Amino acid sequence: MKIAVIALGKIGLPLAVQFASKGHEVVGVDVNADVVDLVNKGVEPFPGEAELQDRLSELVPAGALRATTDYADAVPGADAVVLVVPLFVDDEARPDFGWMDAATRELARHLTKGTLVSYETTLPVGTTRERWKPMLEEGSGLTEGADFHLVFSPERVLTGRVFADLRKYPKLIGGLSEAGTAKAREFYEAVLDFDDRPDLERGNGVWDLGSAEASELAKLAETTYRDVNIGLANQFARFAATAGIDIYQVIEASNSQPYSHIHRPGIAVGGHCIPVYPRLYLWNDPEATVVRAAREANAAMPGYTVGLLEGAHGELSGQRVAVLGAAYRGGVKETAFSGVFATVQALKDRGATVLVHDPMYTDEELAKLGFDAYHLGEKVDAAVVQADHAEYAKLRPADLPGITTFVDGRRVSSAEAWPGVTYRVIGKA
User: Fold this and answer.
1) Fewest 10 Å CB contacts: which of 91, 234, 306, 380?
2) Whether residues 41 and 132 fall in one domain
3) Shared domain check, 190 and 277
4) Residue of 2, 219, 348, 368 with catalytic role
């Protein structure tokens, strides 16, 4: 097959590589000429994605994968077009379709008969049918269901382990017609491999959910569940701390029963998915009080954690405080919706001198994010763990000279590792 992948970001590029590795001719489209240039040189444009560089080094020289900024070069005659263009959402749960609209209109201009179009970007329910179908039909002059087929098939992977996740989880599809769904099944079965999953009654593979709307909701549901679950864990943790209870023992005990799956509390919920997709769900269902309350609870955790520091340390005005971790989660060089921003602001609001450390970022990169860099070994009065980088589990008082208070926002350490230092962790008095 000839396949076009639109948007070569941290999901789109690994998808393009996966498709090419199955023997198909793949052209990636991106508006960023620097990304296109790097891909065509066989160089990964972003670090940290397992297997990506090795696969690029093999596929690009072999001519199986190339990149372009020109839709006219990639889309005409394609058997399938997969879009993974970002969708942005503001704090009021309003989606900004700007980039996706522009990409869809450009795709429509060059769409030819017989193409399967699959959107993988997470969307509010109804978007595929009510927004993309008329936009593609108007711009192309073609008719969906007759001249081309449109489906929604959400990405279900995490950056850093995309190829493993593609094999591990069922590929969900939802079409606007039976014929489109059949083409989507045929396509994804030809470009993906699936691990054996005896735990799944339906088995691993391509799962037809019956409609684009059901497929859209499935993605929103699985991520919103996690946000609500974490919000509940954070509520439990805040209460446990006031009652002298170790919430981690409670969670372990509760989860020993197979119907309990309580997640872990923490300083923040970050990334492109968990803090974002509940807002998309709220766009469809603004009366979802449980979802809204969980989102508010999780958004309040950086401020709550800084409050823990203030309660343990005392007045923060004039104190040097290191925030450990700019990334939204350990081992991933990404700051999308990271708790670092709210944590730093809450500390500044209390008059602290705030410094940020992250082993994955240079001083210059931290400066571009608006932070002053902290280096281990420099004097500091207190520290807050914001990201669970593996390196932070090894820290000891000597690494932060002068420290008197250590607030472990991710429970990467323990009180025993901090003799002579006031140690606090969320959910434990």
Assistant:
1) 91
2) yes
3) no
4) 219
